[in-house]
Specification:
By secondary structure, the protein is α+β, with helices and mostly antiparallel strands. The chain has helices at 3-16, 132-145, 156-169, 176-198, 203-218, 226-232, 237-248, 252-270, 275-281, 287-298, 302-312; strands spanning 31-38, 45-47, 73-82, 84-87, 95-97, 101-107, 112-114, 122-129, 148-150. The chain is built from eleven helices and nine strands.
Length: 321
């Protein structure tokens, strides 16, 4: 599957998602999200210090973080189709934010992003994040990795962004701690991707990261088989298995199980989903199958793992040292 078709599939998935009717929150939200297409250059022009209030402004609501000048926040925006321009503060050049590319900017700042007259349309989804700890970490990372990143639509970062988008739009967070946990998961993948841009992984790390991203992305629409992963690289199943073992020291099947169990463990801690739902999401036949494999890896049942992990780290705002 080409990057273009993957982006089209991602766009369809985001558009097919139905938001729940807005309801009063019992906590102060720290993340906002949206999906939009802009076609009017006059109506889409944002400056980090002089953000215009337009009739089409998607951020015009009572909880709009844009109206508070005291606390900085960040905007992360990922292009699905078309393109726009991003002009970093202090630079004389603008950079194109094309398909499969994201930019990160802090507000307030001297950064500028807009739809130029030469672009027919720009379709993207975005986050506004004003959680102080997450904002600080993102700003530190962008200083080393830059503000514009080319990110494959099947990457773990985009997958995590889609999960966060869906959770925010569906108002599925039980409280501020659940929202914070999801934000920290996004932050981890953001920092991981940024770190790899600055320090490119060796062949082993790169191959493991690629397969991990493919498996995580495939969980949404059917777990990819080893043959499909091999075909994607122009190899037979046998040739790929030998190549993977020679490069990583692991068999493909063993690593894929490792990724699926890791995702199951993440869902156990970050959500209240039933074990049967987690089994379905991570490609296991049923809850019994997941429980059997999970116990072999962690020497705990999934329920015990959830209970122990949550009891030892009840407040996700207090990062472990």
């Amino acid at each position: 599957m080409t990057s273009r078709s993957e982006l089209e599939k991602l766009d369809e998935s985001l558009r097919a998602f139905e938001s729940r009717p807005s309801k009063p929150r019992e906590y102060k939200a720290r993340v906002f999200t949206g999906l939009e297409t802009t076609i009017d250059p006059k109506a889409y022009y944002w400056h980090g210090r002089r953000r215009k209030k337009l009739a089409t402004d998607p951020f015009e609501h009572d909880t709009n973080p844009c109206v508070r000048a005291a606390d900085p926040y960040v905007v992360w925006q990922y292009t699905l189709s078309g393109w726009g321009l991003f002009h970093p503060g202090g630079s004389i050049h603008s950079s194109q934010v094309a398909e499969g590319t994201a930019f990160t900017t802090a507000v307030p700042s001297d950064d500028l992003y807009y739809l130029p007259a030469e672009s027919k349309a720009w379709t993207f989804f975005w986050f506004i994040i004003d959680h102080p700890y997450v904002v600080h970490r993102i700003r530190v990372r962008q200083k080393t990795a830059g503000q514009i990143w080319k990110i494959p639509p099947t990457s773990a970062l985009v997958c995590q962004a889609v999960d966060l988008h869906h959770a925010v739009k569906s108002a599925s967070f039980e409280d501020e701690y659940a929202e914070e946990s999801a934000l920290l998961q996004f932050l981890i993948e953001y920092e991981r991707f940024g770190h790899n841009l600055v320090h490119p992984p060796n062949p082993r790390e790169r191959l493991l990261a690629d397969i991990r991203s493919e498996v995580l992305a495939g969980m949404r629409c059917g777990l990819p088989t080893i043959r499909e992963i091999a075909n994607h690289r122009g190899m037979s199943r046998t040739r790929f298995a030998h190549y993977f073992k020679e490069t990583t020291g692991l068999t493909p099947a063993r690593f894929i199980i490792h990724v699926r169990i890791g995702e199951a463990a993440r869902l156990l801690v970050s959500s209240d989903l039933k074990l049967s739902a987690i089994a379905d999401l991570t490609g296991f036949a049923d809850a019994t199958h997941l429980c059997r494999v999970f116990r072999r890896h962690f020497y705990l049942t999934p329920d015990s793992y959830r209970r122990v992990t949550r009891s030892t780290n009840p407040d996700p705002r207090a990062p472990r040292s």
